[in-house]
Amino acid sequence: MSPYRFRPFARADLPMAARWLKSPEVARWWGDPEAELTLLSQDLDEPAMQQWIVEHRAQPFAYVQTYRAGAWPQPHLQHLPADAQMIDAFIGEPAMLGRRHGRALLSAFARRLIAAGAPAVAIDPNADNHRARRAYARAGFVGDRIVTTKEGPVVVMVFQPGRASAAPPTPEHPLR
């Protein structure tokens, strides 16, 4: 059983998301906090986008969104099945960074998507975001080829369940 709860993102979560988007680690990779908050808000009405708040021990700490790889034209995703699920995510609470939650929540979330029928799950971090890339690799995402997109260089990483390198943290051993 996962120590994480994924609940739908709601308008009531926008103030919390605004605070998270302003944190230095999130703003560094996601961009202008106000522009990103506008997009998160608009995506609440976008049927192709699914959004969640991630909780650990009933405390919200992260944001995850998914969409089909074929939902919008993105040449760097053309090799994936159109129904593959793409993930974008960030940990918003600074105290939760560096505690192995990123790898654990993404592994749990990717497994959930596959159990729901996704033919593949992928993520495309900025090529320079080495911290995220290491967490994704430990979560079971594989890929190291850098591709150029209109947003800049990214690495398309595809989830392979048997590749996760560590068990998720547990309440008894949060840093295991």
| Strand arrangement, major sheet | 1-2-3-4-5-9-6
Look at the helices and sheets and give the structural class: alpha+beta
Outline the low-pLDDT stretches: 166-176
Shape: globular
Q: What is the H/E order?
A: EHHHEEEHEHEEEE
In CATH terms, the superfamily is: Gcn5-related N-acetyltransferase (GNAT)
Estimate percent helicity: 25-40%
Largest sheet: 7 strands, mixed
- Per CATH, the architecture is 3-Layer(aba) Sandwich
Instruction: Tell me the β content.
Output: 25-35%
User: Mean pLDDT, as a whole number?
Assistant: 88
Rg, nearest Å: 15 Å
Distance from N terminus to C terminus (CA atoms, Å) equals: 16 Å
CATH class: Alpha Beta
Total number of helices: 5
CATH topology: Aminopeptidase
The overall number of domains is: 1
